[in-house]
Structures are given as C-alpha cells and as structure tokens.
Amino acid sequence: MKSVLTTTIASADTAGRYPSGSDLESIAGNIQRADARLEAADKLASNYAAVAKEAVDAVYAEFPDGVSKGCTPEVRKDKCLRDVTTYLRLINYCLVIGGTGPLDEWGIAGAREVYRSLGINTAAYVAAFTKVRDRICVPRDMSAQAATELTGYIDYLINSMS
Could you tell me where the beta strands, DSSP code E, fall in the chain? Predict the structure, then answer.
C-alpha cells in the first residue's frame, strides 16, 4: 500500500541511492502530522454511520433519482449508502497510513469508467463528499489540523470523481 514512507523508500531504491535530505524532510513532515491524522481517523470511525447517512440524504435532496437507474429507490439509496461508507473507510485508511494508497488502489482506479458503464452518476458522489467536507466544524468535531488532514483526502476523492 502506498504511503509517503513506502513511496520515498521505493523511489530511492529504484534510483539506487539512499533517501536524500528532502526525502527525509518529507517523511519527517508526514510523521509530525500523524497525531492529527489519527485524531481525524478516530473521529471519522466513531461517527461514520451518521456522516454517511447525512451525505446520502444530501445526495437525494439534490439528485432525487439517486445515483443509478434500474432498481427501486430503496435499493438505490442502500447502494449509495454502501458506496459512501466504503469511501469513508478508505479515507480512514488513508489517514492512518498518511498517503492516498487505499483510495488510489481500491477506490479510484477505474471507478469513473465502472460508474459510467453502470449508469451511475458520479456528480451525486461529489455532492455527498462535498457535504461531508463542508459539514466539518472545528473545534466541535476535531482540531483544526485534524480537519485539514481529513479534508485533504476528501478533496482528493472529490477531484478524482469530478
């Protein structure tokens, strides 16, 4: 799984060199932000069901037909909730490892093409994660640094789906 640590080491190894000073600075910065990332991961994990439900409700307020066609509204909403919950879990994994690897490997690679072929509206998912991002309140939900870490991964996902 890709993280700042694994990417840095792999890059140095491929080049047949030791990690450079700038490589080590990048790793140090990643380690310094670890507490904030873990705080965000803990807050997200403890409240993911409510966050996912609020995001899906926002989707259906903006997109009454939901994310896909061909099944009942209840089934569509359940599928949307399942997908939003899965993406939140991947974001949680990203927070834990300090890199986009889980999203890249399991959530983004080929997702747009799969959604397009299934007739799933990615704009609805963008609306869901925009709602999640915009709802975060400092200090009610988490510290400012934790919120920054979380919103960075949410923005990364939104941009990949746009």
Answer: none
State pLDDT tens for residues 36-83: 999 999 999 999 999 999 999 988 888 777 666 666 777 778 888 999
Joined tokens for residue 85:
């919950």
Q: String of b and e for 71-85 (b: at least 16 CB within 10 Å)?
A: eeeeebbebbbebbb
Nearest CA to 158 among 111, 99, 105? 111
Place of tokens 């400012």: 144
Measured CA to CA, the distance from residue 67 to residue 134 in angstroms comes to 21
Confirm if 159 and 122 have CB atoms less than 8 A apart.
no
- Report yes or no: 46 and 152 within 8 Å, Cβ to Cβ: no
Are the C-beta atoms of 41 and 92 separated by less than 8 Å? yes
